[in-house]
Every structure is written in C-alpha cells, then in structure tokens.
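Margin note from the TA: students keep mixing up input and output lines. Inputs are the sequences; the output is the structure of the whole complex. Example:
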Amino acid sequence: MDSKRKLKSLHIEKQLALKLWKSALKFRKRAYAPYSKFLVGAAAMSSKGIIGGCNVENVNFCGSICAEQNLMTRTVFEKALPIKIICVVTKMKNDPKGAANPCGFCLQVLSEFCSPELVIWTGNLKGLVKRQTLKDLLPGTFKRGAF
Ligand SMILES: [Zn+2]
C-alpha cells in the first residue's frame, strides 16, 4: 500500500474508532460494578454493526466478567464475527489522561476469535488514548494445537 493510501486508510480507521469510542462510552454506563466502581465499556465493529459489552461484577469476584469478555460472548451469540477493531473505555483513578489496557484474561479470550492484527483502541471519558493490536499486547498467545 502506498503512503497516501495508507494515510487515508488510517484516517478511515480513526473515524471508526471515534464512533466506537462514543458507543463504548455509552455501554460503560450499563456496567454493574458496585464493588470496584471501575466501570468499563467496550464496543466493536462486527459483521452486524456495532456490538458492545460492559463489565458485570459479582460478590464472588470469580463470577465477574470483563467488558471485553461480555463483548466477545455477545458477538459469538449474535453470530457477528469477525471483528477487526474494538474500543475499550475506562476511567483510571490514578491516571486521568490514560486508559486501561484489557487484562490478560480478556486478551486470551479475544485471541480465540480474532486475528493478531485486531486493532484495540483504548480510551477514557475525554477521547481515544492509544492504538495497539492484539499481537502488541499479547505477543505470546496460547494457541490452538498446543495440546
Ligand atoms: Zn479483562
């Protein structure tokens, strides 16, 4: 791809990321996080349009589910794969200008259904913060065929 086409492609991706950020911000409001108060919203562009998830906590912390896992289970249920781009919105108490990355468990769940090229945008309440790919965040994925 020549540099002009690459720039145009990145511009289009950024527009989509902004759309997903707005959706993730909305989905974040649906989070059930009475224990941590750490609300997370996630949105992806799926084959059936924007699909989202939020974190849902449980008094037994092992029963809690992250927004990204919620997003992926919904995507599978809706038969809306593949997804190539997601946005995750958080508000970090100690770093208001930053945004949290998905946890390791979520990265593994994402790797089950998405390519290593999956674009993962993180954002906070003010906007997009960082663009990374699944392989940036989880270079040593536990893959099929390992057992
Ligand atoms: Zn997680």
